[in-house]
Amino acid sequence: MAVTTTNLIMGPADLYIGNYGATEPADTAVNTTPAASSWTDLGGTQDGVKLNIDQTYTPLEVDQIVDEPGARLTKRMFTIETNLAEPTLENLKFLLNDGTAASGSGFKSFEPIYASSATQPTYRAVILDGYAPGQIRRRFIIRRCLSNDKVESTYKKDGQTLFTVKWQGFYVSASIAPFKLIDATS
């Protein structure tokens, strides 16, 4: 088998977060930074950014044959996981799906949502900008997601403090796909 070495990918990715329904960058803008007016750069990451698409196909069966005649997609879960290397209060707000930030002379503070509004989470959108084969840009957009795994932050004398995060994507509508991939072509 011949290997096309230009199809091999290595390199970091950048993460941006925006409000659910934020204006997405045009497909032709895959090589440019998303607009700061709609998208917030989440800063540095550590140990990479992991994109996971887990699909479940449920087999069909009939009495007349022993083989499964086919299957249907019955579940799909897609996530982006990483360690944010910049454990700021602003990033914590995104990881806990909202809250209240305050600042004053010599301080900043954050309180998570805790009232009845906590039962109605604040959905976001996430953009992962990485590389595609040929070392050109690849953009992955999750259009509606929540941070839904535990958020950890460890303080150690010999290790960097990070925020762990896992964003899970969700259904958008019958006319809008829940995620999109765009590769630059040159």
From TrEMBL:
InterPro entries: Bxb1_TTP-like. This is Phage tail protein. It comes from Streptomyces alboflavus.
